[in-house]
Amino acid sequence: MTTAHESVATHDSSTGQSLTTSAWLDTHFLAMQPEYETMLRWVGIQPGWHVLDAACGNGSFLPLLTELVGATGKVSTIDLAPENVQVVEQRAQQSSWLAPVVASKAAHYA
User: Fold this and answer.
1) Domain spanning 18-105: which CATH class is it, in words?
2) What is the 3-state secondary structure (H, E, C) of 29-66?
């Protein structure tokens, strides 16, 4: 029998943070997408802005962020987990997002 702690641990990224794998983040984002998108639109991001998505995970917010900043804007992302940064880079290369996306891996804090 699997305990609750063991099942959560399967969603740890390489940083050891729980619930930060790409698959889990996608599932969670889709479940909460209407609420997340409402909150993001409420912020009032404008075309031309340069926006930072800190702790971007796998980039679930990027389609809407790039739509909001438009072709004259830019989105920078940063995450501790290199595998999440890699997913963001792949998604950015394969997307038709309006704004450029620059993905960066954050330094690990000891």
Assistant:
1) alpha beta
2) HHHHHHHHHHHHHHHCCCCCCEEEEECCCCCCCHHHHH
Confidence of residue 73 (pLDDT cuts 50, 70, 90): very high
Tokens standing for 39?
Answer: 């909150």
In angstroms, rounded to a whole number, what is the distance separating the alpha carbons of residues 40 and 62? 11
Given a cut of 50, whether residue 8 has pLDDT beyond it is no
**Domain layout of the chain by residue ranges:** 18-105
Type of residue found at 32:
M
Cα dihedral 35, 31, 69, 104 sign: positive
pLDDT bin (cut points 50, 70, 90) of residue 95 is very high
Cα dihedral 54→73→86→24 (10° resolution): 60
- Give the residues across from 102 on adjacent strands: 76
pTM of the predicted structure, to 2 decimals: 0.79
CA angle 53, 42, 65 (to 5 degrees): 35
